[in-house]
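Hi support team,

I submitted a single chain yesterday and got back a structure, but I'm not sure I'm reading the token output correctly. Could someone confirm the output below corresponds to the sequence I sent? I've pasted both exactly as they appear in my results page.

Thanks,
R.
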Amino acid sequence: MYEVGRAGGYVTRQMWQRRGRATLYAAAAALLAATAAGSFAGAVLSGTRPLQAVAAVAGLAAVMGCGFVWTRSSRFLRQARQAAVGARSERDVRTAVRRTGSVAAAYGLLLGGRGGDCDAVVFTRGCGAAAVEVKTGHGEVVAGEGKLRVGRRVLHGDPVRQAANQARLLSRRLNGGTVQAVVCVPGMSNRPFSTGAGVWVCSARDLKAVLDRAPRVFDSAAEAEATMRRLWDANPS
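Hi R., thanks for writing in. Yes, this is the structure output for that exact sequence:
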């Protein structure tokens, strides 16, 4: 299989960026904590009331600043953990794609328009095409009212519309060929299903069966691979 791109590359970059910010905020919190401790110590040891008052105010301001930057550090660290989980899900889907016998796959392909890159573009063994959006979760997946619920958690945004938009963008790049839109939740426990918009939702385990449904777009595997090379070479990332 011809394969290009890095599965989870975008969210991995997000993870490292957020870890870096968390570290900087944590360092600032430590500095402010030390400043607060020094100010309160100065307020206790100072022999004059004006100096005690100034030191106490400075210490209080440092405590408040420490609390603020520590909260920011904790938030960035939590976001970094979420990004790490998302990257792992995309790598799980890459593993599943490799088992499908597909002709070609690209990860993080920018297809144009707004909405970011497509997690996986797959040209199947039946010479069909699919745009796969990867979401993280474990349990039964239910679609409704523009949302996907995984277990007790509602996924952010509208994954079904996101997959449909990526499929539409890819179709334009393929001169109007029909592209199968897929939302893959690796830990999904129920059987694959199709939404009213024609978007398939499946687990990594059932991805092969869903990709096999993609209608034929290319006349041959060689044409499919050549097309993927052209798309990737034109990729602005």
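A quick pointer for reading it: The longest strand covers residues 104-109. Let us know if anything else looks off.

Best,
Support desk
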